[in-house]
Design goal:
Elements: E1 28-34, H1 39-53, H2 60-77, E2 82-90, E3 93-100, H3 108-121, H4 123-131, E4 135-140, E5 148-155, H5 156-165
Antiparallel strand pairs: 1-2, 2-3, 3-5, 4-5
């Protein structure tokens, strides 16, 4: 016997909800990328699109530069075929976090040498982040499976000044 369904029984459709335009505060994205030479270019395009959609296009130059370097470094160091990137906008700053599978070394000299190589690979990103008055670094990934976590935090005010004046804090 067929069951009569009322509209109250049916699941809602996306058209039932009012459209909410993207805002800076709603910016939260994550993406798994291949550990491949084309991944920094993919991230650059994605970041410009996302920042524009969320009304943060004025941050794009600084964020694209810093994130691109983080992705390139992660792809270079990872021991897996992929890397993971997260973008979040909170408290007037954009956080870019990269995870790669490269394990942190237990031997102190190996750890120091590896950290020096990674720091060297991130020189340009570090300069951009400092010029924007932000923070950056790397360390153990706290997620299951371990690896390395790298991050850059770029305040909107500094990133905007980076676009206008070339460098915010010089």
């Amino acid at each position: 016997m067929p069951v009569a369904m009322t509209s109250a029984c049916l699941p809602y459709t996306p058209t039932d909800l009012p459209p909410a335009p993207p805002t800076p505060e709603s910016l939260t994205y994550s993406l798994t990328l291949p550990a491949a030479p084309q991944s920094p270019a993919i991230v650059r395009a994605m970041i410009r699109t996302v920042l524009d959609a969320h009304g943060l296009a004025d941050m794009a130059d600084a964020v694209v530069q810093a994130a691109s370097e983080l992705v390139a470094c992660a792809c270079r160091f990872t021991t897996s075929p992929e890397v993971y990137v997260c973008l979040r906008y909170r408290e007037e700053a954009l956080r870019v976090v990269l995870y790669d599978a490269h394990p942190r070394h237990q031997h102190p000299r190996l750890a120091a040498a590896c950290d020096a190589r990674r720091r060297s690979a991130l020189r340009l990103s570090a300069c951009v982040v400092r010029a924007c008055g932000g923070d950056w670094g790397f360390g153990d990934a706290r997620e299951p499976g371990g690896g390395t976590r790298m991050w850059a935090v770029l305040p909107r005010k500094g990133a905007r000044a980076y676009l206008v004046g070339g460098h915010a804090n010089e």
